[in-house]
Amino acid sequence: MQEEEEELFENPPVWAVFGDLMAGLVGIFVLFLVLALGFQVELAESLQGERQRREADSERLKALEYALAGPLAEGRITFTDGKIGISGNILFGLNSAELQPLGVELIRELAEPVRRYVENRDELIMVSGFTDDLNIHDDNLHFMDNWELSSKRALTVVRELLKHGLTQEQVFGASFGESQPVAPNDSESNRIRNRRVEIAPLPRGASRKS
User: Fold this and answer.
1) How far apart are CA 74 and CA 109, in angstroms?
2) CA dihedral in degrees (56, 61, 66, 70; nearest 10)?
3) In what order do the strands lie in the sheet with 77-80?
4) What's the whole-model pTM score?
């Protein structure tokens, strides 16, 4: 009898080992279930936060578009995904970086809606200058090439925005010359489209990487 008890102690029944194994597997299953549920909750909260952020951004874009209704209806600007496009002919004369009176008036109209749009956001306003592909014809040699012309024009618009409420921490200029045309430079009407200034929001992190 004693020998049987010792043998039973040394070699426990299979069902006891199986029970221990099942208990361990159940424990692992419960652990994975808890982790999965936690991940689902975290994912749901993340998606909800992203959805709310997108809705807020959409409302801000709608508010900006509403504020720009006047110049949009008059065809003085375009507005696509938060980016304001302005024909260079409205802002500047030929081979000039000095704002025309209509250009000054337009930038003054845009300044306040743009300022409200970027306010309390981790974003900057980038003012970009673009030209067509024609070489500069300037007897006074004010500009060496299209890069310099587009740079001076962007800077002129930046300074005008600064006069009307934006700060140096909110806005900067960029020059693209004849690169990145929006239409082929094969006609005067297309070249007019390419001679433009764009005002667009940009995440601060993206500006630091560039």
Assistant:
1) 13
2) 160
3) 77-80, 83-87, 196-203, 123-130, 171-175
4) 0.72
